[in-house]
Specification:
Helices cover 37% and strands 14% of the residues. With 264 residues, the protein is of the alpha/beta class. It has one domain: Rossmann fold. It has a seven-stranded mixed sheet. The longest helix is centred in the first third of the chain and has 14 residues. It is globular and about 55 Å long. The protein starts with a helix and ends with a helix. The C terminus is likely disordered.
């Protein structure tokens, strides 16, 4: 029942979300979290996830890598440009569905800006739901047996850390066992539903608590000060100006000697 409510909420945020390209919130921790949206969802639909992560102290950047009429390789290039623009370093990427799959084909320069890939409901093995609508580029890449998944599925292992979360059952991934990555890595959430992953309170708490355990908060005052200084993803800044040369002081040795002679 909750899943139906979340679907309606995503639909309601779709039109105003077209005018919101990204959400940025600065936190006190040194880690920056980049959230990439699923197909048909806008950054506004992730307000609960962003708020919960921000309350935990993380800096959060929610972005859309592109619409479904754009292939996932092109969306990966767009994501790499966003990471470079915001000067992300050792970031944590939380990808919801399509957002995770787009990150799999990041160029090396973009991938090196990320430390940890956390996937939420990513169809690593594709979904039969998208096979009849393969004329839509992004959904064609997400279908079972697509060339994109064949060549890029294992790229998640190129990240230093990889944590695949999935719902017990996902209505977008048919059959639902295709949602499992395998290799004993899957973290299964009890609540069913695709949007419950990013809007349901219990699931949000589980994901955030997992990240808090992986990245303990700084305790000393010096560590906190450094964390606040380096935490937020920053836009490109202009090159610093060269410092002005200090004016040379005039020599006063002659005057001092003359005064001594006068006293004598």
């Amino acid at each position: 029942m909750k899943e139906i409510f979340w679907v309606l909420l995503v639909i309601l945020t779709a039109i105003p979300g077209l005018f919101v390209k990204r959400l940025v919130r600065r936190g006190r921790r040194p880690q920056s979290i980049i959230v990439t949206t699923d197909a048909l969802a806008t950054p506004l639909a992730y307000f609960r996830l962003a708020s919960r992560l921000h309350r935990a102290g993380f800096s959060v950047l929610v972005v859309s890598t592109g619409h479904v009429f754009m292939g996932l390789r092109e969306q990966a290039r767009r994501l790499a440009a966003i990471l470079e623009r915001y000067q992300v370093k050792d970031g944590i990427l939380i990808g919801h569905g399509k957002g995770t799959l787009a990150a799999l084909s990041l160029p090396d320069a973009g991938r090196q800006r990320l430390h940890h890939l956390v996937s939420l409901g990513a169809p690593f093995n594709g979904s039969r739901l998208f096979m009849p609508i393969g004329f839509i580029p992004a959904l064609r890449d997400m279908a079972v047996g697509s060339d994109y998944l064949l060549f890029n599925r294992m790229n998640c292992m190129l990240f230093q850390s990889f944590s695949p979360f999935s719902a017990w059952q996902d209505e977008y991934i048919i059959p639902f066992n295709l949602a499992r990555y395998g290799q004993g890595r899957d973290l299964i959430l009890d609540q069913v539903g695709r949007y419950n992953l990013v809007l349901g309170a219990d699931n949000l708490n589980t994901v955030v608590e997992f990240l808090e355990e992986q990245y303990p908060e700084r305790t000393t005052a010096v560590e906190q000060a450094r964390a606040i200084e380096n935490s937020a993803p920053r836009a490109e800044t202009a090159a610093p100006r060269a410092p002005k040369k200090a004016a040379r002081k005039k020599k006063t040795s002659a005057k001092k000697t003359s005064k001594k002679k006068a006293r004598r």
